Amino acid sequence: FKHGICTVEILDAKTKDKLCFLDKVEPNATIGEIKSMFHKSHPQWYAARQSIRLDPKGKSLKDEDVLQHLPVGTTATFYFRDLGAQISWVTVFLTEYGGPLLLYLMFYFRVPFIYAPKYDFTTSKHWVVHLACMCHSFHYLKRLLETLFVHRFSHGTMPLRNIFKNCTYYWGFAAWMAYYINHPLYTPPIRYYINHPLYTPPPIYGEQQVRIALIIFLFCQVGNFSIHIALRNLRPPGSKTRKIPYPTKNPFTWIFLLVSCPNYTYELGSWFGFTLMTQCLPVAFFTAVGFIQMTVWAKGKHRSYLKEFRDYPPLRSPILPFVL
Amino acid sequence: MSAPAIGTTKTAHSDVAPKKKRGPGALATAYLVIYNVVMTAGWLVIAVGLVRAYLVRGSYHGLYFSIEKPLKFFQTGALLEVIQYISSNVMIMLCSPAPGIVPSSVVLTGFQVLSRVFLTWAVTHSVREVQSEDSVLLFVSAWTITEIIRYSFYTFSLLNHLPYLIKWARYTFFLVLYPMGVTGELLTIYAALPYVQKTGLYSVTLPNKYNFSFDYYTFLILTMVSYIPLFPQLYFHMMRQRKKVLAHVEEYKTE
């Protein structure tokens, strides 16, 4: 049982050098407060890039952890690791989603130097191309708004190098897809009535294919949004508590009965719909790569749910009901 | 690329003695010895084939044709190494060639093997017109000498009787062979360019049902450009390995 004043010393986790000595620390001080104090003596290490642990190779302590509840004496010894330059999640999301939104529109409006000069500032004659632009733009606008108003992030920051990696991925794929969909030689889905090699189909679009694709896309967009709202409501503002998500009154959340990460399920569905709508191989590639990445994330999340909650519903799969 | 870079990063001190008790299992060792002996023999066949053809013809031109089949067979066979290194990650050292010679990364290995296989099949085999180029002989010779040394290095290491000469050769010959091989490879790709552009080899154009296009000509140019950042990295990596491995020799020289 501690009362009075504690002292804290912070050592480098790799070299074990004494970096900082704090006396007159309150026993009920949090790790977050200690990080601020450490930052004062070492201004180059702002709190977000500090990893404070009890053991040099151990897990990082949380900002909320209180000094007197940790297994330390009146003099606490902590180990510090520099996480590297950090950037806030919000900044990363806005940049990585803003890029595709703008890039796609540049291809849609056929800004000069992309296609042959005679096509500059022309628009496609296929209505599915206009539809695809609306869907793609809607999708990324939705993501931007969700980043600003819906998501509650458990970490404030991520390593700086992530922004380059993430932006390359999103911007690169967006440009690649947009190039083909908005190309003057783009071929929309066509329904063939007869399979004879000499038969030339009339220029009627595979309207049915595009219609089904649009329904799938919109359904999954609403579903994805519903899940984000449900997850947000699990967590009171400013808190970092974690709870098991359950189905709510919204039918789009009933998928929680079968899946741990339905936001990924719906996201996959949206892009599947977009692939069907545009019938474009690069879009299929993007969907496939996204699917692999989201499956990895979903499996990780599912595993941590199982570890954290004894009573986790056994029927749930990570991303695809019963399958994956 | 022709860098003898695979599986060398952690070689250093444990190459000769003392041996750690945790080696690969007997069956895995037997498989690897056989694999490496066969590969050594294969590349020796290629080397002998080149020399014989040269003596018979009296000129350097068109020697590729005399060793085309064994080259394709043994270079492609190296894909097995990628599988070996993947399984060694899975079975924790069980399949490693020898204690201390742990493959540094599957990525480095896989990348080198894939680039060699790419050059063998997607460039030299696919574009008939470059097969009589001298640049082909340049990289084939570089690969041949490199591989003979590399596979015999692995073989002897597995049998724990590595002659210093082989180790020295492995970490020294690359200084000349690597640039030689890279030059041959780049010249060959460059020679293939006009034919690829003319025939549209492996290329897909718009419009088509799946709204996709691929220009092999541009792809080859990008491949050539990628040598600029990649070659120096691999080369200097090998030089660092050389310093590490040959510097320790004074302490451990027993063969």
From TrEMBL, chain A:
What one GO molecular function would you report for this record?
A: very-long-chain enoyl-CoA reductase activity
Cross-referenced InterPro entries, in alphabetical order?
A: 3-oxo-5_a-steroid_4-DH_C, SRD5A/TECR, TECR-like_N, Ubiquitin-like_domsf
| PROSITE patterns assigned to the protein according to its UniProt record, in alphabetical order | S5A_REDUCTASE
Put simply, this protein is called Very-long-chain enoyl-CoA reductase
What is this protein's function? Involved in both the production of very long-chain fatty acids for sphingolipid synthesis and the degradation of the sphingosine moiety in sphingolipids through the sphingosine 1-phosphate metabolic pathway. Catalyzes the last of the four reactions of the long-chain fatty acids elongation cycle. This endoplasmic reticulum-bound enzymatic process, allows the addition of 2 carbons to the chain of long- and very long-chain fatty acids/VLCFAs per cycle.
Record field: transmembrane:
87-107, 212-231, 252-274, 280-298
Q: In which pathway does it act?
A: Lipid metabolism; sphingolipid metabolism; Sphingolipid metabolism; Lipid metabolism; fatty acid biosynthesis
Q: Which family does it belong to?
A: Belongs to the steroid 5-alpha reductase family.
Q: Which UniProt keywords apply?
A: Acetylation, Endoplasmic reticulum, Fatty acid biosynthesis, Fatty acid metabolism, Lipid biosynthesis, Lipid metabolism, Membrane, NADP, Oxidoreductase, Phosphoprotein, Transmembrane, Transmembrane helix
Question: What are the 3-oxo-5-alpha-steroid 4-dehydrogenase C-terminal domain coordinates in residue numbering?
Answer: 157-324
Q: Enzyme class, one word?
A: oxidoreductase
Question: What Pfam families does this protein map onto?
Answer: Steroid_dh (PF02544), TECR_N (PF21696)
Give the main localization category: endoplasmic reticulum
- Please provide, in alphabetical order, the Gene Ontology terms of the cellular component aspect for this entry: endoplasmic reticulum membrane
Q: What is its EC number?
A: 1.3.1.93
Query: Which topology term describes how it sits in the membrane?
Result: Multi-pass membrane protein
Protein's GO biological process: very long-chain fatty acid biosynthetic process
Q: Where in the cell is it found?
A: Endoplasmic reticulum membrane
Q: Which reaction does it catalyse?
A: (2E,8Z,11Z,14Z)-eicosatetraenoyl-CoA + NADPH + H(+) = (8Z,11Z,14Z)-eicosatrienoyl-CoA + NADP(+); a very-long-chain 2,3-saturated fatty acyl-CoA + NADP(+) = a very-long-chain (2E)-enoyl-CoA + NADPH + H(+); (2E,7Z,10Z,13Z,16Z)-docosapentaenoyl-CoA + NADPH + H(+) = (7Z,10Z,13Z,16Z)-docosatetraenoyl-CoA + NADP(+); (2E)-hexadecenoyl-CoA + NADPH + H(+) = hexadecanoyl-CoA + NADP(+)
Q: Which residues form the TECR-like N-terminal domain?
A: 7-82
- Source organism of the structure: Oncorhynchus kisutch (Coho salmon)
From TrEMBL, chain B:
GO cellular component terms, alphabetically, are: endoplasmic reticulum membrane
**What subcellular locations does the record give?**
Endoplasmic reticulum membrane; Membrane
Q: EC no.?
A: 4.2.1.134
Q: Where are the transmembrane segments?
A: 29-53, 171-196, 216-236
Q: In which pathway does it act?
A: Lipid metabolism; fatty acid biosynthesis
The processes (GO biological process) annotated in the record are: fatty acid elongation; sphingolipid biosynthetic process; very long-chain fatty acid biosynthetic process
**What top-level class of enzyme does the UniProt entry assign?**
lyase
Q: Which family does it belong to?
A: Belongs to the very long-chain fatty acids dehydratase HACD family.
Protein name as catalogued: Very-long-chain (3R)-3-hydroxyacyl-CoA dehydratase
What is the species of this protein?
Oncorhynchus kisutch
